[in-house]
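Appendix B.2, paired examples.
Example (i):
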Amino acid sequence: MNNSRPTSDSRLQTQDSKTPPPLKKGDKIAITCPAKKLPAPMTDAIKLLESWGLVVILGETVGLEYHQFAGDDKQRADDLQRFIDDDSIKAIIAAPRRLRHGKND
């Protein structure tokens, strides 16, 4: 009887992982705030993404405030799930909670 447990390496080899295709002009990407509220607008980041030809869809949680969070638990979960369920969204970006000079710390 073999009581050995699989090593982490063998488990990784059996998982079916997929690499998504690269983003291309015209692809829709979503920005959502699944945790903390944004300290400042993401105007520069959105302009950069759009300059690459991407279509930016902002989640309902961008700009929401509920204490220190970007909406209550249900709002944040629903926002993220909406993008996960939308096959036209090619990438989901979780907005950073801290911005400094337009960059994430």
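Example (ii):
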Amino acid sequence: MLGREANGIGRRAPPVLAPASLVPGTGLPTGILFIGGVLYMVIAVVLLVAGVGLLRLRGWAWWLALLTAVGVLGWTLYGSYTSPSDTTVGNWATVAVSGAILLYLLLVRRNFRRPVAPPM
């Protein structure tokens, strides 16, 4: 019987998710998509740590957020430069948001400096 478990109880088998490469329009092998997903998860954890540090006004978090904003901005502009035919509105929105975050981080930098110890 199709769609039934082999134990004969008659329950339906749980649905199996298709590999990502079978999704129409991707055109990428499953391994590449998996590696990309893992990298995005690592970036998400780094940004979560940076966000907590920014809320606590830590200097290391400011640097981490600055490097991330510069990296995203540079990567997006590089991608738009190397293949201008693939540039979308989303790419320009990413450039705008990353640029705004970079500008904001530069404007609030003095709030993340350590206080100077009073002279003794």
